[in-house]
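QA checklist item 7 of 12: single-chain prediction sanity check.
[x] sequence parsed
[x] length recorded as 84
[x] structure emitted
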Amino acid sequence: MNRLPDSELVMIPGGTLITDTPEEGRALAMLIARHTIHNIQPDLDVLKAHREEYSTNPNSLTAAAQVVAIEFQTIAAANNYWRK
């Protein structure tokens, strides 16, 4: 099995949801989404074997965007919407 090392299977990269800007928050949301997928499927060979299917499927892409949006909502709330 071509597994990611346990050190890479963290749920919150950097251990915090606090970011300086919305742009950093959005990048963190995307990173958390990727980490979620890797925690669900840590075998890179299995993950890559189906990439062609999900990377070109509009429903899969929409679902991925929804996951990122939910993560971004969580990060924005944690940052008090960047303290307006």
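[x] summary fact logged: The radius of gyration is 14 Å.
[ ] second reviewer sign-off
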